[in-house]
Design goal:
The chain is mainly α. The protein has two domains: 6-65, no CATH class; 72-110, no CATH class. It has helices spanning 21-27, 39-47, 59-68, 73-79, 81-92, 101-110, and strands at residues 6-9, 31-34, 53-54. It has a three-stranded parallel sheet, with helices on one face. One of its GO terms (molecular function) is glycogen phosphorylase activity.
Length: 114
């Protein structure tokens, strides 16, 4: 973990097990960018919100949204020009010969690629 300047802990809150790697990054001076989940909660409590960059929902909010039936990736795609552009670019590919249609379809159907 030495010489790292940034620690990205960007999983959806409540969806991945948390280890102590992010704590090691923080102890060595790296800035943490992440969701309010797992060890990031402990880090935030220890160092204060001004010393960690937290974004997104917490685990309870993510679970409630998933269980509510109100989350619609397709609706978000249809109403966001920026997201529409990005996913359409993915569909067209990046000149590497790889087809990303299936990935885009999975994201729009389930919201998490599963």
């Amino acid at each position: 973990m030495p010489a790292a300047e940034l620690s990205e802990q960007i999983s959806m809150a409540g969806k991945e097990a948390s280890g102590t790697g992010n704590m090691k990054f923080m102890m060595n001076g790296a800035i943490t960018i992440g969701t309010m989940d797992g060890a990031n909660v402990e880090i935030c409590n220890a160092v204060g919100q001004e010393n960690i960059f937290i974004f997104g929902m917490n685990a309870q909010e993510a679970t409630e949204l998933a269980n509510s039936g109100k989350y619609s990736p397709l609706s978000i795609y249809q109403n966001s020009q920026a997201l529409h552009r990005v996913l359409d670019m993915m569909r067209q590919g990046f000149g590497d010969g790889v087809k990303y249609d299936r990935l885009v379809d999975m994201l729009l159907k389930s919201g998490n690629g599963a």
